Amino acid sequence: MKGMRLIRAAALVAAGIVVGTWMGTPTTSAQGASGSRVAILDVQRVLARSAAGVSAREQLEKDRGTMQKQADGQRSELEKMKDELDKKGQLLSPEARREKQEALERKARDFRRLIDDLQASLQKKEEALVSRVLQDLSGLVQKVGKEKGYSLILERSKAGVLYAATDSDVTDEVLKAYDDQTKKKP
C-alpha cells in the first residue's frame, strides 16, 4: 500500500515538472518556454453577456413564467380541494369522505407529475439553448486561437484554472466576435 502511494506521489511530482517545463517559467504573457501559447476562455461569462446568451435566458424566463402560471393554477385547485375536505369532511359520510380523500390524493400526484414534467421540459430547453450557443462558439474559439497563435485554449471552470494572467484571457475577444456573428445572422 505504501509502495503505491510513493509511486503516485512520484508520478504527481514528475507530472508537475513536465507541466512546469512545458508552461515555462512564470511570465506576464501566456507564452511558455517552448513557444506554446495558452489562453483561457470563460464560457459562463460569454453565455451571460453575449446577445444570444441574454436572448436565450430571456426566452427561458418567459417559458418559466408560463410554466409557473400553469403550476400555480394546479396548486390553487389542490389547495381548494384540501380546504373543502378539511372544512366539510366531518359532515360527510365515511364513503363520501374516502372518495374526496382519494380525489385529493390523485390531484396531488398529478400536481407532482406536472411539476416534474415542467422542470424536465425547462431543463431540456435550457440544455438545447446552451448547446446551440456552445456550438456557435466552437468555431469562433478555433478562429481566435489560430489568429492569435494559441496552441491551447482552456475553459476556465472546466479546466480547473486557479490563476491565469489577464493577457491570456480571450473571453472578451470571443464575446465580441460572437456578438458580431449573431448580429449578422437573420
Can you tell me about this structure?
The protein has helices at residues 2-23, 43-49, 51-88, 94-148, 171-184; strands at 38-41, 152-155. With 186 residues, it is mainly α. It has one domain (24-184). It has a two-stranded parallel ribbon with strand order 1-2. Helix 2 (43-49) packs across helix 5, helix 3 runs antiparallel to helix 4 and helix 4 (94-148) crosses helix 5. The longest helix has 55 residues, at 94-148. The N and C termini lie far apart (62 Å). Residues 1-33 have low confidence and may be disordered.
User: How many helices does DSSP assign?
Assistant: 5
Name the overall outline: rod-shaped
Strands ordered across the widest β-sheet: 1-2
Radius of gyration over alpha carbons? 28 Å
Main sheet makeup: 2 strands, parallel
Low-confidence stretches: 1-33
Helix content: over 70%
- Secondary-structure element series: HEHHHEH
How many structural domains are formed by the residues?
A: 1
Alpha carbon gap, first and last residue: 62 Å
Q: Could you say which structural class the secondary elements and strand pairing correspond to?
A: mainly alpha
Strand segment count: 2
